[in-house]
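Write out this protein's structure.
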Amino acid sequence: YGPQCQAFEKEFAAWNGNKHAIFTNSGTAALHMALVACGVGAGDHVLVTSYSWSSSATCIIHHNAIPIFVDIDFDTINIDVNKIEKAITKKTKAIVVVHLHGLAVNMEKVMAIARKRKLKVIEDACQAHGALFKGKKVGTFGDCAAFSFNQNKCLCTGEGGMFVTNNDDMRAL
């Protein structure tokens, strides 16, 4: 970590439209940071799509929380936003929205549900650099987001990730 990483953080935040960006060793590490930033802990339920890279769910388990799987919409292969509300429990703390294969989830619907239920939203944008929903880049809708730069991603640095947020308190954690 040095001046090149710091420059990359600033450039990535500006390019994606985020106030803060923190370079990490992987997209998975960025997801872990997002869970901590959202206050997810032991026994909390976190909604996540049933189809994704394993880190989208295993990071939840590593924080002693419980992943609650929501089925996919077969037209997009992303989380079925019409099934989110039914999956919410009394212990639900957050939703991990995965923008898979560069396809943006309908964040308008997700955010409406989250605000109504007072849930945090983590965007797993590890496979969706530059993807847009209604003209706005993914990683800018939720409370925070994670990106990956490993060798098979849309934007590659060989390895690494980025935690992004517009929330000053989440940045300070």
